[in-house]
Amino acid sequence: MNAIELIRKKRNKQSLTNEEIKYLVDSFTKNKIPDYQFSSFLMTVFLNGMSKEETSALTSAMLYSGKVINLSAIKGLKVDKHSTGGVGDKTSLIIAPIAAAAGVNVPMISGRGLGHTGGTLDKLEAIPGFRTNLNLSEYKNVLKKSGAVMIGQTKEIAPADKLIYALRDVTATVESIPLITASIMSKKLAEGIDSLVLDVKTGSGAFMKDTKDAVALAKSLIDTAKSFDKKVIAFLTDMNQPLGNYIGNWFEVYESIKVLQGDYVENLSELSLTLAGAMIYLGGKAESIEDGIVVSNELLQNGMAFNKFKEIVKLQNGDLRFINEPEKYPRSKFSEKIYADKTGFVQSIDNYEIGMAALELGAGRLTKDDKIDPKAGIIFNAKIGQSVKKNDLIAEVFTDKKNKIDLAKSKIQAALKYSDKKTAKPKLIKQTLS
């Protein structure tokens, strides 16, 4: 085998064998073929796609480029959740402790913010002292003690994915369903899971803005999980408006704490209960997703889920003072309120622009070297279908960057469209696939 022949084969829309895909991934990971050749291969995949079998083979090659964690010494089923990302999506912080409190093991390896979407690791690291860089021994130890652990990708886990993703990012090959599938599943399968719940988002604040593309991605992820004998349930969910009301790293921890303490937050609570219910069902602790939702709600109301969250934070070195008294967290130097500029019903929200406004305030990264300000963010009150009067408070922005406030405010105002007629609320959970 040689790279040129395999690139030509894929360019000509022929299928590659498992061995050929493994050869390309291994050769690139071990620096035996140059990045320009692997970039060419990625572009052929972007343009011509991959079959189910090829996608599974690519996932396998990336998965076995590093360690696959063996969690057999820990009793019980292991279940994780993966979201394709959105604005205000903090469900991981809520559902991991709920599922763990129900007796399900949750080994969670998460990512950082990407573009306008937030990352679970950045949110967790907004908790002073919280360690997301546990080694594999510490990872297993926390999981064994608390039933849940939340870390970032280590050097041992799917190293090919890290190299390939860096190349995709600079070669315009990010938005490819087979490449997205292999990237997600290689990391998730390396965790040592038995089952996986997927939250595939669609809408203006999602990477997959078109529902058809989101369904195709969900089906690709399901097919790949099944090829590795993993049980999987996927939910297609709406991302045309922020999830919950708080956007920004500490703000999202704060809202998660409120939900874990039993507060009901529109959209966020519903989705969190559904995802946790599915995890509890796949973990063998409920007879159905619906039963799992009932269990989840009980664990929120009786305080067990919040206690589990505090246990996880403590085991990963987080400072519990701010979990017990979140109002004592440091505040941004500057804040400004934003008011509705007309009377009517909220017809639509450009959720991408809301995410970009938060990023400008310091809640995300414009370049990979940017430092995130955990205090920065937005409290966003508007919801699609809501009636508003002129000068009603619709949002408040928080930042240490005074020079960015006007830009953020203009993005938020421009993102909102109003109508004289009442607009229907978007359906949060559009479809369930398994």
Taken in chain order, the helices and strands follow as: HHHHEHEHHEHHEHEEHHHHHEEHEEEHEE
* Sheet with most strands: 4 strands, mixed
Uncertain segments are none
Rg on CA atoms, Å: 22 Å
Number of helices: 17
**C-alpha termini separation:** 37 Å
Describe this structure in words.
The protein has 434 residues and is α/β, with parallel strands linked by helices. 45% of the residues lie in helices and 15% in strands. The protein folds into three domains: 3-48, Transferase, Pyrimidine Nucleoside Phosphorylase, Chain A, domain 3 (Up-down Bundle), CATH 1.20.970.10; 79-324, Nucleoside phosphorylase/phosphoribosyltransferase catalytic domain (Pyrimidine Nucleoside Phosphorylase, Chain A, domain 2), CATH 3.40.1030.10; 332-419, Aldehyde Oxidoreductase, domain 3 (Alpha-Beta Complex). It contains 17 helices and 13 strands. Helix 10 links the parallel strand 4 and strand 5.
Features:
434 residues; four-stranded antiparallel sheet; Aldehyde Oxidoreductase, domain 3; alpha/beta; single chain; 13 strands; Pyrimidine Nucleoside Phosphorylase, Chain A, domain 2; Transferase, Pyrimidine Nucleoside Phosphorylase, Chain A, domain 3
